[in-house]
């Protein structure tokens, strides 16, 4: 550990960043001052658009060139103002004194260069190393960031690595020249929770080993709690609070900080309750525990495989086993959640319910078998099942007015027209908390949360019995996420709607579900009521998922460093692949665990 | 939300496309040139100082040489003693008719092929796109020449020939774009609501292709004008004595040393018109395509 | 990879088959009688009939086509009606000149187009950028025959720097190459500019800069390999443009390539030559596309040949 | 004279040289090339249309004009070294007649006995040709033929060595071996051909040049510019209209320009089978409506106006014939007489290379003045020819660029295929579809007058035939093109050689290089 000095390693004073817009200059970072102490971690937190990335980029003089510029302020590093350095000198600072990790591991590596080339470039950016020395250092770095088989990785291209691996490479590049400071801009946002946990632990370990200081940018209070020594909370480009981590979480002073913390779903906070969060607040709710009745949706042995074509004749050569023999029921008024990591088949399962992709098995919606139904035969079924897509913006036709978009299902199904239609749409708008006079606007004129409400309104317009909500809150800031979750639950309370709620976020799932199914590699590994899953997880994978969720509580012991990273197994197999048998085990009360047969 | 503000700015609440075109100097230049040519074509009978078909006796020297530009014949006379300026003005009609009609047909065929192949997939996709591939591999000019030889050339035949050669590009572009739009969430969402193909195609996909189609249509006009000129230059375009800028050059090309005005003035006219459409098309591409933003 | 190439070659064969059919139909419809042209103006009707028979022109259409295909499979493109020579010999004799011209044109395109594009992208928004882009617009808008005649007039006739048409030395190559490459240079500079601007905005460029790499290293080591990708995809299209362009350029400069051959043949409806040149051009275009598709994965490892 | 042999000359052509096979070649470019590579029994005195024996030493014609006997020269060798014999002569002519050769000139030999059988492929050779001995050959004709000596001077009758023909088969035209003054040294397809002096040529004073380089694919304008630069000696396609005035007025070049007549007539055909050209008045009206002087001006005066099918330098030309004078009013009156006072719509076909479309436009304007609206169809040569060969396709054709240039200087050569009934068939060259049985009979009669003493009478008869044709006016003759060519200062020779009426465009064997003198 480094000596604590009175003056910090990096002192930022009055940093102000402006961007040029058609309407004139706009200040996106406003008079920001902070000090980064040696060997410490400073977390900059705040919601999307609050100016976090701009702050980081301005410290590297990497602001997007003509649009953004630093209009005031200083940042002293070893006595030099790095905001004012000319480009040639700044180049000496980049990499040597400050290393940086970017938000998107998928795009921050050059797709056409090998890992070895890029890492080598970073090592020798300031020249003077022999090829052998570069290679040795590259291997050392890869080893340091815990990448298995480093020698092989050097020859690989970025797209051949998983997201987690790539982010490790980016970290290795940032560390290549032994900088004193590491700036990490949302380094884990795009990653699965389990991978996120590994990366966060890695950064902590490197910090401890190398004694560097870290500026960590994140919007996730859980991550802040895991990482921070000091926390700086930003809102609209301004600093609203700057305190040690323990203080922030225990005694947040600024209302915005309080709001932020309140909105964060905390894993385990609902231990002991049976119904979803909202309902437990309201004991008079009509549906408390779903009464055992006819299931609204019955899925048996649902299997979805996608062929990968190739060869001379474009015949299938490989197959993606996206969903493998999944069975479940959804009762009226019940929320079933599907959780699992990226690519495990959640969305595919949801789409199969609406016949949006070809599938095998048996699905019954309100008693009707939907297998093989054509577009028009499906239409009545779709009155009962609707879907809200993952990305609200992408699922709204940007060239249509939102009012028309919400009216569309009614028109398609011929349920209303003329003034009746207008009334229905206006009602739906009010129902999801939008005002009816916003109907004439276009999707881009709304915020992310509002757009999600529009999608919900559209899904509601047919008064379906089931809504498939695919990652409906994943793209939203926590505060908005909380609002949308509340809305969904209110609707359920009112109408007895069922949800198939798809998410990768265990904490969110805990809040909203009656029952939870954990998916891994296209299969269910565990299914049961919320309490059964969260309070008594049985399957290893379920446990691992839960352990990986960062908890917004700095007092909790930080998780230990994990083993070397491994890639997730791939769902792509040869044509002759037969999935291994699984045995289901009912451990009581409908709590099912699937394990490989023969164990 | 701050995010909303940012996006409102990028997806500008359209102050009409025209207004935005006018704000760009290059596009404005292009529009002005096009306007001049259109006016010349429409008002040719009033603007042209002479009958474009009249072979003036005094339009040739005693030896039979054409006259250089002068006060009487502003752009000089051609090899049979006609007023070049008048012929250029009437020639604008030809270029524009070909540009608009031929290209219009090409755009319609191309988008119909591209959209249906892109949306319906299956055998329609295979058949249409294989055919498009085939047409792509055809050396366009050779095809046009052969077609022009089969149907003995006239203004309308030339227009048809050009249309048959030019639709391929548009088919390709709309095909690719339709395919990607058809995969976008909002189309999947439409299907999830039970919308039929007609509704999806006409209400959701077509509007998204419109800007692409408009852009390619303008750029296509430039290509078309050039192709007509080339066909005429090779002597298989619009039939004499109807003037087209290309066949004026064709008739006079060998005189480029002794009467350069006969080649380079119409050459400049073709260049200017093609340039104008390219400038406007490119500006439209910028304006209508949000992914191309950040230029100018 | 091998499977991919095989499949593409099969596709190519099918495309060529289609093209041969379409061309054959079109030429069948052309209102001109080859037998009479061969027979000449002093021939008797009997002679014409006899020639028609020898050439198989009196056979039904499908039989004529099958005959042609049969020859094609044996690498026989037929004999020119009027030149009385194997079409393959004629094309082989002229192909080198056209290839040379294309090579020259490609060089002009790349040298001019890419440089202009890179400079414009780096100086985005400046006056240099504007000037270069206007120049590129002129490039894509200028009719080749006008450019050709203009260059000939100015540089060969007036200034005498280059020979007035013809073939043989390097000096002969310059003006036709520029004429043919002008259009492509315009396209390339514009594509290169927008592609490079786009690439320079990418995250990985920021990553590279964050390691302290020099501007040159970022540009040449990181940005250009990515920016060049869309341009490689252009190769196929480019060859198509060339194939159209050489008819005009070769006729303006008297360049003894297949464009000139095609043009002469079209004028005289020498069907075997027209067929042959069309097929060779189509082949060139398809091969160009195939090359583009084969080169791309060498530069862009994400793209797998399937 | 004592002209030293040696030196080289560069000649350019626009179009490719297709073949140098004498039985097949029939283009502007290869016609005189073949004449230099091959020899026939007969030829013409350089620069004139006067017949003289070439590889024949002497000949005899029988009384009735049906038997021709030729004695061959001694020491005539092929380029491959073998001596030329009468057997070769027989072989060559039979080869031209053999349908497998697809010779466009087969029909010229129609008067030789056995032609029918040979040309239909029923017989191997021509029964009328007999090899008397190695140096003597005898032709028997089935009918008297006054043009037969001319026919033997045609390229189609030039002598080829059998062994070489068989060696190269269909590609003989690319590997010509003859007995001419030059031999082929190099041929780069589409680019250039090089002729070299044949050392063993039977006529030791010929050729004068050591080498001729032909560059093909050169636009006439480019060729002329290069000539001005001193790179080219003779532009094979002549002086292009675009440069004519310029060089004519250039003191440096004006003396190098040579003018000569040509056995050529440019005319408009009117299809007598199509309305309203089935009426003679209409055709005559067209003849009167065209302002030929203005057309001459458009082509820079490089022609003389024509009023009859024959060109002025052709025997049988009617000097004092006045023809239809330019008179639009009278033309209108004629139209009115034909019941077409309001004029009519028609089409004028024309080949699409400069200056033909321009001439057509001038004609179009003249026709318009008398109410005839002729729309122009400017097409590739092949398409125009195809349209002309159909009975109901082309009402009017401007013949420029495809017009008849006589194969040999005899009036009969302007009649058969283009004005006689034989040509008025589908696919024929009689684009006017004019068929007058009486005139055909007269022509037949004229051509059987072989006796040189009756030449005057024969000429008069032909004159009559053409004047009768003009009464029916299936054509509107417009002009007889004059040839204007230019040579570089380096090349010498009598002016006549550069406008040789037979060795078009230049008599390669006789011109010489001044720089080796
Ligand atoms: N290139 C740009 N041009 C104009 N405005 C920009 C640009 N980049 C960012 N902004 C604006 O600057 C503000 C701050 O952006 P910044 O990227 O720093 O946000 P952030 O806090 O990192 O958000 P996120 O969590 O979404 O990454 C936002 O309002 C954004 O719209
Ligand atoms: N149309 C398709 N063709 C081929 N493979 C597909 C297709 N759609 C999905 N897959 C594959 O199926 C698997 C499951 O995909 P799915 O979208 O259901 O995952 P997910 O659990 O929703 O993941 P995420 O959280 O990333 O959305 C993935 O490996 C995916 O790549
Ligand atoms: Mg950010
Ligand atoms: Mg998903």
Automatic annotation (TrEMBL), chain A:
The keyword Secreted does not apply. It comes from Nitratireductor aquimarinus. Its EC number is 7.4.2.10. Signal peptide: none annotated. This is Glutathione import ATP-binding protein GsiA. One of its GO terms (molecular function) is ATP binding. The complex is composed of two ATP-binding proteins (GsiA), two transmembrane proteins (GsiC and GsiD) and a solute-binding protein (GsiB). It is found in: Cell inner membrane. The lineage of its organism: Bacteria, Pseudomonadati, Pseudomonadota, Alphaproteobacteria, Hyphomicrobiales. It holds the Pfam family oligo_HPY.
Automatic annotation (TrEMBL), chain B:
It is found in: Cell membrane. It is a multi-pass membrane protein. InterPro entries: BP-dependent_transpt_permease, MetI-like, MetI-like_sf, OppC_N. It comes from Nitratireductor aquimarinus. Its main location: membrane. Keywords: Cell membrane, Membrane, Peptide transport, Protein transport, Transmembrane, Transmembrane helix, Transport. Belongs to the binding-protein-dependent transport system permease family. PANTHER family: D,D-DIPEPTIDE TRANSPORT SYSTEM PERMEASE PROTEIN DDPC-RELATED, OLIGOPEPTIDE TRANSPORT SYSTEM PERMEASE PROTEIN APPC. Residues 92-281 form the ABC transmembrane type-1 domain. This is ABC transporter permease. It comes from the Bacteria. The chain crosses the membrane at residues 26-48, 96-119, 209-238, 258-280. Pfam families: BPD_transp_1 (PF00528), OppC_N (PF12911).
Automatic annotation (TrEMBL), chain C:
Keywords: Cell membrane, Membrane, Transmembrane, Transmembrane helix, Transport. It is found in: Cell membrane. It is a multi-pass membrane protein. Gene3D superfamilies: MetI-like. Residues 95-296 form the ABC transmembrane type-1 domain. SUPFAM superfamilies: MetI-like. The chain crosses the membrane at residues 12-30, 99-122, 134-155, 167-188, 227-253, 273-296. Belongs to the binding-protein-dependent transport system permease family. This is ABC transporter permease. The lineage of its organism: Bacteria, Pseudomonadati, Pseudomonadota, Alphaproteobacteria, Hyphomicrobiales.
């Amino acid at each position: 550990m480094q000596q604590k000095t009175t003056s910090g390693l990096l002192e930022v004073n009055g940093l102000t960043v402006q961007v040029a817009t058609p309407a004139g200059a706009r200040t996106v970072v406003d008079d920001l001052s902070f000090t980064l102490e040696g060997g410490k971690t400073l977390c900059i937190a705040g919601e999307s658009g609050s100016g976090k990335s701009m702050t980081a980029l301005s410290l590297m003089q990497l602001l997007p060139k003509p649009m953004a510029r630093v209009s005031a302020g200083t940042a002293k590093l070893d006595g030099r103002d790095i905001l004012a350095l000319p480009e040639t000198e700044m180049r000496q600072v980049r990499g040597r004194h400050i290393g940086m990790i970017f938000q998107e591991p998928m795009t921050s590596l050059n797709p056409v260069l090998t890992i070895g080339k890029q890492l080598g470039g970073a090592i020798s950016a300031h020249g003077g190393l022999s090829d052998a020395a570069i290679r040795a250092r590259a291997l050392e770095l890869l080893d340091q960031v815990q990448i298995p088989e480093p020698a092989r990785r050097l020859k690989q291209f970025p797209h051949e690595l998983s997201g987690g691996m790539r982010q490790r490479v980016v970290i290795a590049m940032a560390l290549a020249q032994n900088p004193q400071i590491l700036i990490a801009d949302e380094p884990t946002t795009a990653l699965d929770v389990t991978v996120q946990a590994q990366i966060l632990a890695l950064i902590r370990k490197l910090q401890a080993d190398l004694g560097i200081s870290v500026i960590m940018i994140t919007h996730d209070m859980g991550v802040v709690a895991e990482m921070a020594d000091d926390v700086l909370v930003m809102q609209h480009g301004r600093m609203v609070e700057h305190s040690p981590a323990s203080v922030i979480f225990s005694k947040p002073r600024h209302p915005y900080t309080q709001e932020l913390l309140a909105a964060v779903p905390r894993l385990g906070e609902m231990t002991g309750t049976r119904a979803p969060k909202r309902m437990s607040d309201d004991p008079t709710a009509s549906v408390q525990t779903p009464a055992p009745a006819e299931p609204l949706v019955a899925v048996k042995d649902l299997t979805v495989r996608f062929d990968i074509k190739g060869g001379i004749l474009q015949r299938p050569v490989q197959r993606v086993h996206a969903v493998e023999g999944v069975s479940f029921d959804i009762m009226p008024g019940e929320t079933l959640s599907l959780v699992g990591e990226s690519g495990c088949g959640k969305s595919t399962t949801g789409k199969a319910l609406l016949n949006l992709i070809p599938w095998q098995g048996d699905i019954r919606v309100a008693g009707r078998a939907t297998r093989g139904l054509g577009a028009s035969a499906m239409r009545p079924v779709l009155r009962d099942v609707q879907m809200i897509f993952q990305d609200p913006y992408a699922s709204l036709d940007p060239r249509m007015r939102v009012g028309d978009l919400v009216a569309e299902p009614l028109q398609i199904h011929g349920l209303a027209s003329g003034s009746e239609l207008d009334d229905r749409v206006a009602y739906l708008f009010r129902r999801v908390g939008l005002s009816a006079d916003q109907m004439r606007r276009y999707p881009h004129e709304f915020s992310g949360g509002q757009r999600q409400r529009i999608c919900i309104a559209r899904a509601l317009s047919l008064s379906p019995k089931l809504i498939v909500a695919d990652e409906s809150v994943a793209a939203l800031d926590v505060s908005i996420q909380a609002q949308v979750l509340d809305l969904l639950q209110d609707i359920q309370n009112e109408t007895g709607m069922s949800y198939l709620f798809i998410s990768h976020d265990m904490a969110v799932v805990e809040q909203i579900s009656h029952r939870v199914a954990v998916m891994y590699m296209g299969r269910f590994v565990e299914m049961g009521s919320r309490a059964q899953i969260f309070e008594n997880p049985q399957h290893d994978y379920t446990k691992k998922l839960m352990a990986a969720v960062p908890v917004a509580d700095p007092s909790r012991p930080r998780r230990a460093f994990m083993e070397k990273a491994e890639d997730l197994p791939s769902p792509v197999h040869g044509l002759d692949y037969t999935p291994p048998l699984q045995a289901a085990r009912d451990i009581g009360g409908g709590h099912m665990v699937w394990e490989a047969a023969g164990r | 939300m701050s995010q909303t503000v940012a996006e409102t700015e990028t997806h500008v609440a359209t102050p009409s496309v025209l207004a935005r075109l006018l704000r760009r100097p290059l596009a404005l230049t292009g529009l002005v040139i096009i306007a001049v040519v259109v006016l010349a074509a429409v008002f040719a009978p009033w603007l042209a100082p002479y009958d474009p078909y009249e072979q003036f006796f005094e339009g040739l020297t005693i030896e039979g040489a054409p006259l250089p530009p002068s006060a009487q014949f502003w752009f000089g006379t051609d090899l049979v003693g006609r007023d070049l300026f008048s012929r250029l003005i009437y020639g604008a009609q030809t270029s524009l008719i070909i540009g608009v009609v031929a290209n219009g047909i090409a755009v319609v065929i191309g988008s119909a092929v591209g959209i249906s192949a892109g949306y319906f997939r299956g055998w329609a996709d295979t058949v249409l796109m294989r055919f498009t591939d085939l047409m792509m591999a055809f050396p366009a000019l050779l095809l046009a020449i052969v077609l022009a030889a089969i149907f003995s050339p006239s203004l309308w035949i030339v227009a048809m020939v050009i249309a048959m050669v030019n639709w391929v590009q548009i088919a390709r572009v709309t095909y690719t774009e339709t395919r990607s739009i058809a995969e976008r969430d909002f189309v999947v969402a439409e299907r999830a609501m039970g919308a039929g193909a007609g509704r999806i195609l006409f209400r959701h996909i077509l509007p998204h292709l419109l800007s692409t189609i408009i852009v390619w249509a303008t750029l296509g006009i430039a290509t078309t004008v050039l192709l007509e000129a080339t066909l005429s230059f090779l002597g298989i375009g619009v039939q004499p004595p109807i003037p087209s800028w290309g066949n004026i050059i064709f008739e006079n090309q060998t005189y480029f040393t002794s009467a350069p005005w006969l080649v380079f003035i119409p050459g400049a006219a073709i260049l200017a018109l093609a340039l104008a459409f390219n400038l406007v098309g490119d500006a439209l591409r910028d304006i209508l395509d949000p992914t191309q933003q950040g230029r100018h | 990879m091998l499977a991919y190439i095989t499949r593409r070659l099969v596709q190519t064969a099918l495309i060529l088959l289609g093209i041969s059919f379409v061309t054959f139909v079109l030429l069948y419809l052309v209102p001109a009688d080859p037998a009479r042209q061969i027979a000449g103006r002093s021939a008797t009707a009997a002679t014409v009939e006899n020639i028609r028979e020898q050439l198989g022109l009196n056979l039904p259409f499908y039989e004529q086509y099958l005959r042609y295909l049969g020859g094609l499979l044996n690498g026989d493109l037929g004999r020119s009606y009027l030149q009385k020579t194997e079409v393959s010999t004629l094309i082989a004799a002229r192909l080198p000149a056209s290839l040379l011209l294309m090579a020259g044109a490609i060089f002009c395109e790349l040298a001019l187009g890419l440089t202009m594009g890179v400079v414009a992208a780096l100086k985005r928004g400046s006056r240099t950028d504007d000037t270069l882009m206007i120049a590129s617009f002129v490039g894509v808008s200028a009719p080749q025959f006008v450019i050709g005649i203009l260059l000939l007039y100015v540089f060969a006739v007036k200034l005498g720097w280059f020979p007035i048409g013809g073939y043989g030395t390097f000096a002969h190559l310059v003006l036709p190459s520029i004429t043919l490459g002008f259009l492509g240079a315009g396209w390339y500079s514009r594509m290169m500019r927008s592609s490079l601007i786009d690439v320079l905005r990418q995250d990985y460029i920021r990553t590279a800069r964050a390691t302290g790499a020099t501007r040159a290293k970022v540009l040449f080591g990181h940005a250009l390999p990515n920016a060049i990708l869309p341009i490689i995809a252009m190769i196929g299209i480019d060859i198509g443009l060339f194939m159209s362009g050489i008819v005009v350029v070769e006729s303006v400069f008297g360049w003894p390539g297949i464009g000139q051959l095609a043009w002469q043949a079209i004028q005289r409806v020498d069907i075997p030559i027209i067929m042959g040149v069309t097929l060779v051009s189509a082949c060139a275009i398809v091969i160009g596309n195939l090359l583009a598709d084969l080169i791309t994965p060498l530069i862009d490892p994400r793209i797998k040949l399937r | 004279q004592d002209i030293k042999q040696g030196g080289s000359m560069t000649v350019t052509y626009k179009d490719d040289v297709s073949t140098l096979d004498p039985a097949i070649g029939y283009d502007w470019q290869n016609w005189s090339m073949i004449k230099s590579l091959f020899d026939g029994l007969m030829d013409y005195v350089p620069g004139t249309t006067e017949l003289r024996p070439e590889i024949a030493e002497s000949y005899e014609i029988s009384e009735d004009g049906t038997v021709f006997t030729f004695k061959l020269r001694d020491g005539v060798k092929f380029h491959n070294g073998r001596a030329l014999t009468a057997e070769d002569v027989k072989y060559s002519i039979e080869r031209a007649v053999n349908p497998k050769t697809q010779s466009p000139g087969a029909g010229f030999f129609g008067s030789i006995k056995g032609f029918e059988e040979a040309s239909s492929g029923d017989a191997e050779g021509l029964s009328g040709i007999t090899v008397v001995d190695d140096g003597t050959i005898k032709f028997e004709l089935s009918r008297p033929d006054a043009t037969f000596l001319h026919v033997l001077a045609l390229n189609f009758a030039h002598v080829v060595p059998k062994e070489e023909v068989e060696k190269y088969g269909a590609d003989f035209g690319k590997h010509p071996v003859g007995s001419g003054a030059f031999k082929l040294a190099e041929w780069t397809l589409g680019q250039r051909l090089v002729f070299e002096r044949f050392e063993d040529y039977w006529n030791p004073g010929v050729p004068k040049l050591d080498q001729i380089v032909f560059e093909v694919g050169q636009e006439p304008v480019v060729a002329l510019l290069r000539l001005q630069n001193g790179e080219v000696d003779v532009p094979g396609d002549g002086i292009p209209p675009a440069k004519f005035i310029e060089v004519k007025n250039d003191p440096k070049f004006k003396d190098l320009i040579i003018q000569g007549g040509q056995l050529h007539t440019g005319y408009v055909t009117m299809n007598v089978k199509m309305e309203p050209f089935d009426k003679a008045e209409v055709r005559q009206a067209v003849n009167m409506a065209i302002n030929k002087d203005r057309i001459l001006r458009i082509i820079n005066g490089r022609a003389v106006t024509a009023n009859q099918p024959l060109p002025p330098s052709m025997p049988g030309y009617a000097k004092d014939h006045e023809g239809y004078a330019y008179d639009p009013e009278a033309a209108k009156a004629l139209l009115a007489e034909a019941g077409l006072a309001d004029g009519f719509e028609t089409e004028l076909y024309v080949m699409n290379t400069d200056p033909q479309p321009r001439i057509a436009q001038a004609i179009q304007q003249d026709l318009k003045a008398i109410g005839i609206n002729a729309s122009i169809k400017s097409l590739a040569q092949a398409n125009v020819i195809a349209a002309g060969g159909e009975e109901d396709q082309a009402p009017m054709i401007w013949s420029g660029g495809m017009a008849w240039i006589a194969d040999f200087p005899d009036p009969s050569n302007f009649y058969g295929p283009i004005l006689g009934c034989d040509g008025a068939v589908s696919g024929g060259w009689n684009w006017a579809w004019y068929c007058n049985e009486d005139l055909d009979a007269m022509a037949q009669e004229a051509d059987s007058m072989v006796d040189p003493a009756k030449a005057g009478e024969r000429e008069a008869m032909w004159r009559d035939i053409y004047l009768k044709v003009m009464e029916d006016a299936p054509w509107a003759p417009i002009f007889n093109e004059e040839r204007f060519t230019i040579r570089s200062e380096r090349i010498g020779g009598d002016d006549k050689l550069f406008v040789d009426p037979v060795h078009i465009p230049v008599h390669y064997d006789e011109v010489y290089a001044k720089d080796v003198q």
